Amino acid sequence: MDLNRRSFLTTAAGAGAAVCLGAATAHADGSDSGSFGSSSGSANFGALCDYSAAVPPATAIRAAGYLGAIRYVSGRLPADRWMKAKPITAAEAKNLRRAGLTIVSCYQYAKNDWIGGFQAGVHHARIGAAKHRAAGGPPNAPIYASIDANPSFDQFLKQIAPYLRGWQSVIGPGRTGVYGNAQTLTWAMAGGLASWYWQHDWGTPRGLVHPLAHIHQLPGERRIAGIGIDRNIILQPNYGQW
Fold first, then answer.
1. Count of other CB atoms within 10 angstroms of residue 241
2. Residue 133 lies in a domain
3. Deepest of 24, 58, 100, 163, by most Cβ within 10 A of its Cβ?
4. Whole-angstrom Cα distance, residue 96 to residue 82?
5. What total number of domains does the chain contain?
6. What percent of the chain is predicted at pLDDT more than 90?
7. How far is CA 134 from CA 44, 92, 109, 138, 173, in A?
């Protein structure tokens, strides 16, 4: 183990202790991350939806009780033609804003964009930044880069960390967000690789919500106007919305 790796592990261990404490608190109060509108006893500032198959009407999103939508600023693979809601358009963004809804930008082209490391991060960040701006996103709003996986620590060090650095080199550390499980968020925090954190539960112990996460995606599909969506709990007042 080299010094950099050792230092990283030491920092990550400290961050991990905070996560474990949060998990212990969640289990102690008997809360359940799978319950509707709950995020393991964490602060709850409302809910956001995210979707990729189709775009629900903004009025339907609002009527369903959501405060906004997390939207892709990425295209779709040729094989994923069913993902008709990628990317967000300026017209959709305008409709969401007109309905009084907030927007959060996220990026995921393929399942494992991060495999290509730093150069992949640069490539995808440039595309994401351009699509974000084309939809009307402000130049200072963050973009959450997707780590839609349950990676090992070696994968994080060798591929994910460089990938996030690639994003930082394009849009800046202050705008770089990460979508990942609680452990991935902990590692990203320890490495100074992101400033915004959106948690999913793949590989996350049941009931655990990272205490520093801004958003938590709940398991299970829901529907708005017949369109499949995911429900996300807002954990902090400022979660990267525009």
1. 20
2. yes
3. 163
4. 22
5. 1
6. 82
7. 31, 11, 17, 10, 21
Residue type, 69: A
CA distance 177 to 142: 6
**Alpha-carbon gap, residue 101 to 64, rounded angstroms:** 12
Q: Are 106 and 125 in contact (CB under 8 A)?
A: no
Query: What residue numbers bound the domain in which 96 lies?
Result: 3-234
Query: What is the domain-level CATH number for residue 12?
Result: 3.20.20.80
- Residue 242 in any domain: the answer is no
| Radius of gyration (C-alpha) of the chain in whole angstroms | 17
- Chain-centroid distance of CA 124 in Å reads 15
Residues 121 and 145: beta-carbon distance below 8 Å: yes
CA 190 to chain centre: 17
In this prediction the pTM is 0.86
Q: What is the mean predicted confidence (pLDDT) over 60-67?
A: 99
Distance separating alpha carbons of residues 72 and 24, to the nearest angstrom: 33
Sole residue written with tokens 């033609």: 81
**Burial profile 138-149: b = 16 or more Cβ within 10 angstroms, e = fewer:** eeebbbbbbbeb
Contacts of 109 (CB under 8 A, 6+ apart): 74, 75, 76, 77, 124, 127
* % pLDDT > 70, the chain: 83
Q: Does residue 80 sit within a domain?
A: yes
